[in-house]
Amino acid sequence: MRKIYIDRILEYIMSEKKLDVKIYTTPNCSYCKMTKEFFKENKIQYKEIDVSDNIKVAQEMVKKTGQMGVPVIDVNGQLIIGFDKNALRKALNLKL
């Protein structure tokens, strides 16, 4: 009984942790679409940043990551390059 209570407290604490999630995308990127679908399935709120129409944010993304491809996902400052479910689950504290 005590373990169940502790598990519920831990689950509550994790659900209350604020996530700052950004995804750098382009409109025709299939991996970007898959990442956004993953977020929706897991009820993750995120900010979408379209790099195709803003050269300044595209340059910022490249400067941060050294990558020109999308998606680039930023979870509380942790950068994930590409659609990597395991890395996303870990960064978002989701069960595997």
Describe the structure.
- The protein has a single domain (18-91), classed as Glutaredoxin.
- The protein has 96 residues and is of the alpha+beta class.
- It has helices at 2-16, 30-41, 55-65, 85-91, and strands spanning 21-25, 47-50, 72-75, 78-81.
- The chain has four helices and four strands; from the N terminus they run αβαβαββα.
- Strand 1 (21-25), helix 2 and strand 2 (47-50) form a beta-alpha-beta unit.
- The model has no long low-confidence stretch (mean pLDDT 88).
- The protein is elongated, with a radius of gyration of 15 Å.
- A four-stranded mixed sheet has the order 2-1-3-4, sandwiched between helices.
What is the CA-based Rg, rounded? 15 Å
Shape: elongated
Q: Count of helices?
A: 4
- Average pLDDT taken over every residue: 88
